[in-house]
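TEACHING EXERCISE
Course module: macromolecular assemblies
Task: Read the component lines below, then compare them to the predicted structure of the full complex.
Student: A.B.
Group: 4
Components provided:
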Amino acid sequence: MAGAALFFAATQASAQTGDARVQKLEDEVNALKQQMAAIQEQHVRELAELKALIRKQAESPTGVAQTQATQGTTAAPPSLYDSLKQSVASTVPPSALQGIDLDLAVVLDMNFYHDTAGEGVGHLKQHLRGFGHHHASGEGHDHGFENGFNLRHVELGFTAEVDPYFRAWAMVAVDEEGAGFEEAVIQTTSLPYGLTLTGGKLKSGIGRVNRQHAHNWDFLDAPLVNELFFGHHGLAEKGVQLTWLAPTPFYLLFGTEVFNGDNAHSFAIGDSDSLPAHDAPRLWTGFVKAGPDLGPRHALQFGLSALAGRHQMVHEDEAFSDGDTAIFGGDFVYKYDAKRSHGHGDFVLQGEYFYRDMDLDGHGTWSGERWTAKQDGYYIQSLYGFRPRWRGGLRWDQVGLINDLRTPEEGSANYDASCRLAAMLDWKLTEFSLLRAQAGRGWYDTGDGREDAWEFALQWQVTFGEHGAHDF
Amino acid sequence: MLCVAACLSNAQAAEIKIVTTTTDLADITRAVAGDLAEVSSITTGREDPHTLTARPGFILRARDADVWIRIGMELEIGWEPVILRDARNTRIRVGMPRHIDASDHVIRLEVPTQRVTRDQGDIHPEGNPHYWLDPLNGRLVAATVSERLCVLYPEHKARFEENLRRFERDLDTRMFGTALVDALGGENLWRAVAEKRLEAFMTEKGMADKAGGWYGTMRPHQGKNIVTYHRSWVYLTERFGLGGDLQLEPKPGIPPSAKHLASLVSDAKARKVRMILQEPFYTLKAAEFVAARTGAKVVVVSTMTGGSAEATSYLDMLDNVIRKMGAEL
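Instructor-supplied answer key:
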């Protein structure tokens, strides 16, 4: 500005010729101009050097060539992109720049529950014929809901990337009786060839529902077959898992696991001296999941699972059995994405089937006898988003279509199946809260004959802390 | 068999596989990478990008990707982590050079200045992530992508830079019209826009009556107010000088309530709102309720490439949005 004023003054002055003072002024102005040009040149050079240095440090040669300035200014300013980059960097909030994150999420889950069975549906499920055995080493507490208000355990989930090699998560379940680990898992993140190794206490990858935590279930409770074969927490064991994502053009995942085999429902190990000792690991699993690519609206996945492990049972004071349990399963899920907001119009059809074969030899008073059980169960469920954030669902459960037992006491027996129908309605107000109503009717084959029962529940669940991402 | 193997290896040698989270990113990336890359998007442009299920097909695409590009600012927080975790592709993990966050150098709006709680609805702590509706941000995203591709594939640097300049020229022409861009240069016009002195700049250069393109279309409507469903239009309204503070949602991500709509009707009347804008994936009930009581017109238009028949590219998507707005305002 000052330069321009001087220049303006100088040109005006030069009109009056012959004035020595004007000549002097012109000389001064010229000297000033030269000085300014030199300074400008120096600035341009310094700026170029500085920019080169920045690029070098960032190891990123600039991708942006400057468009030619049309005004014909002598020194090109930094490109629009480069200059905005600087100003934008200052507006990025510090939280976005934090390098180390520990995600913490807490789930609170309460419900009001009522059923019409005399001793409760939880009791019926423990006494289904063929399924209703008790273990000396069985879980001490039952997670079945009691009539009235229930507070399901509070889940505390911690997740973090540990270092460039591992991630870890821990899911701690706290209830009124104490605290325990639902999962405590270390997982590799950098193995080559599509391999991932997971260790700790983890939910087995068999089937679909088994891997989900209770707060992600589509219904208040787990399917009957999962509950009867693996318990309320599903098959969650100490051990390791190796999975391989095959380099195929369709989704193909193989997995195998080695576990201690402490599950009280299918792989329990007795603690009586009369039983042979089997060192852990005692449970091996394998599974495969495959899914064709059906375009943007449809998704389909099939799974097969196989489990083999040791199983011991204490039947009465001096009657024991020891042997093997094998379980085979198949599952599928189909999802339709209506591409509307908040699940409106989305549809899910999902089912799982498990077959269990136990073959045990008697010990103690049962010495020389054999105890076998061949049983199965399945469920099929469907969900539909009839409004944004609202879903309706139906689930049909059946266990014991095959229910053949041979016991030393009763010989061979073929028991009836038990089944259950449940309907649910849920409303996800936001990603973080859910209200659900569920009603069900069950027909249970117990030792005392067939018992029918209604179940009603209202569930109220919130998650706070980090925004979790959902698995398929 | 040999031929298949040869073809496969050939294809792999010639192509960079780039996967983007959204179609707008895919289109901008295609413009920059040209035929050097095979670019695909996880979303189709027809769905709400906030909520998506991480399906097996997405995991495969991430598995095979050489470069991954996301919108960022937590837009994809509900699904990107699962895809990247299950894809087991260490090259594209967050923070790696092959994971590009397109929001790195964009101009951000609504960055919270104090602690946010979820009582305020679905607030993104890094700012409103719908930034691609500002054409200037589209331009910056293209430069960001080009810059990173030049680092990753220095052998193609000249091509990327040439493509970028072509894309910028296209975008500038659509924004300001040929006359302005030819006379003043796109870069200078945008600089004036960023410094909020475009009108002064045009007047200074004697080009005040030469405004064309999107700017020319929206110029007569500056200062007008519109209602939108979600706060996904603020970058557009801010860039073109419209008032975009009225939403059908009482808080981001919270569905319209009767109480909120009642007060919105009076606000809309007071501010002489003539248009209610929303994306196709939202239900129309709330918009129609307000429209019936204010006389405003409901305009449903896609904000994502591929979201409607007209939105075949990023620039066409913006073109369609602005043309519809210009016609109805």
